[in-house]
Amino acid sequence: MDLGIAGKWALVCGASRGLGYGCAEALVREGVNTVIVARGAEALEAALATLRSVAPEDTRVLAVAADITTAEGREAAFSCEQGPGRDFDIVVTNAGGPPPGDFREWDEAAWEAAVHANMLTPIALIKATVDGMAERGFGRIVNITSSAVKAPIANLGLSNGARSGLTGFVAGLSRSKIAAAGVTINNLLPGAFDTERLRKITKNAAEQAGKAPEELLQARTRQIPAGRFGHAAEFGAICAFLCSQHAGYMTGQNVLADGGAYPGTF
């Protein structure tokens, strides 16, 4: 299927590895000019090289090593040489989730950091780009959030709270006048994907339980109807579809990709 977005410009955050990289690769393969952003310069350069190797001819891939959760980092992305400035057609927001733990141990600074990274940063990126999208008559914003928005995870209270706040904000904005201007905003909710973050959280849980990480990974796999963890490439394919011309009638949605783990009807 031709997604109809070749030649568009995309900004993909947290794109040096994991789910962000999966989204960037899917868009690049569709011929979307893409600016990837991440904090780690070395991993980012490796991702850039790989993306350029799979990019169709004349598709541009640029990289900005910056912390997108800061105003300076966002300005660096918008000021990227040879990039489109703020005139992105597609924005994929993504920031590392806050650490797991017991809410009794989180002080106000921990909550502020979580809300800043996982709620206020996506809102800042939307604010900087959405009006330009509306003026041009096309825009796609996809926020990578978490399955915890649908089914909260006990030891991820910081993520549950911050991401739920973003979800509520998007629910209102996506249904405003920008919808009639051809701009959609959706949230993409990953369940258990085989990423560095999954293994880090599992390691933390294993240490607390006095078990081997592989034991916990196998136990979690058995709870997923698909019988496995997800892959970044298939997550990226869903993201690319949400960014496509074909998804213009989908907005304000929370698209869950979790291998069937969520047991609810709605």
Write up what this structure looks like.
By secondary structure, this protein is of the alpha/beta class. It has two domains: 9-191 and 232-256, Rossmann fold (3-Layer(aba) Sandwich); 194-229, no CATH class. It is built from eight helices and seven strands; from the N terminus they run βαβαβαβαβαβαααβ. The chain has helices at 18-29, 41-54, 71-78, 108-136, 157-173, 196-209, 213-222, 232-242, and strands at residues 9-13, 33-38, 61-65, 90-93, 139-144, 183-190, 254-257. A seven-stranded parallel beta sheet has the order 3-2-1-4-5-6-7, sandwiched between helices. α1 packs parallel to α2 (41-54) and α6 (196-209) crosses α7. The two termini are 29 Å apart. The mean pLDDT is 95.
Strand order of the largest sheet: 3-2-1-4-5-6-7
CATH superfamily of the largest domain: NAD(P)-binding Rossmann-like Domain
CATH fold call of the largest domain = Rossmann fold
Strand segment tally? 7
Low-confidence stretches: none
- CATH architecture annotation name of the largest domain: 3-Layer(aba) Sandwich
Q: Could you tell me the radius of gyration in angstroms?
A: 18 Å
Helical percent range?
40-55%
| Total individual domains | 2
Largest sheet: 7 strands, parallel
Mean residue pLDDT: 95
Shape: globular
